[in-house]
Amino acid sequence: KKNYWAIGWQNRSRGWDVRNEHFKGCLEAKDITVIADPDLPKELERVSIFEGMIDFLTILTWAQKQKINGPAIILNGTSLASRAIEFLEQYQIETVFAYLDNDDGGQTAGFKIANWCNDNEVNFGSMNYLYEDYKDANDMHVNGVMGGFAKNPIPKARLYPQGVNSLGADRLEWLATRPALNGFEI
């Protein structure tokens, strides 16, 4: 008999997204995980979106906090970005912060979320510049680099995902006119 272990948490559909050094997957139904107070108000100052649970935990480690300000959505896979958008549509949101991977999947999900933000006049902050030389926040962390958090305002150029040049001129114009985010605090 062999013993197996993994860490994980339950998603909105009562499935379990689990990870260990040999396995990354879902038991039962695949869905996003939402970490929020049960009595969430309809008007939200901020929502943070993470690609996976390990990146979420890495960002918490860097910030030396046990929770973040506002709700957090863990995609549990970039293909679930549309489910995150379904969640966002239930609220009036000022800013969405996206902590997505620096790869094609993360950029595609980031563009989808940025498009929704554009259509709904919501500020969009792509936070992957924090770990821009790495695949994701956890990759940077396991390589012995502890993330630092900007105290100064983030330049407007950071309000869009990497690869934004592939967006149309109207989208670039919209992103360029978004107000600069005033520092970074989770």
Low-confidence stretches: 149-167, 171-184
* Cα end-to-end separation: 44 Å
**What class, by secondary structure content?**
alpha/beta
Oligomer: single chain
Summarize the amount of helix as a percent range: 25-40%
Spatial shape:
globular
Could you tell me the strand content as a percent range?
A: 15-25%
What order do the helices and strands follow? EEEEEHEHEHEHH
- Count of distinct strands: 8
Radius of gyration: 16 Å
Which strands sit side by side, in order, in the main sheet?
4-6-5-7-8
SS summary, helix count: 5
Question: Largest sheet at a glance?
Answer: 5 strands, mixed
Mean pLDDT metric: 80
Structure description:
With 186 residues, the protein is α/β, with parallel strands linked by helices. It contains 5 helices and 8 strands; from the N terminus they run βββββαβαβαβαα. A 5-stranded mixed β-sheet has the order 4-6-5-7-8. It has a 3-stranded antiparallel β-sheet with strand order 1-2-3, with no helix packed on it. β5 (43-50), α1 and β6 (72-74) form a beta-alpha-beta unit. α2 (81-88) runs parallel beside α3 (104-119).
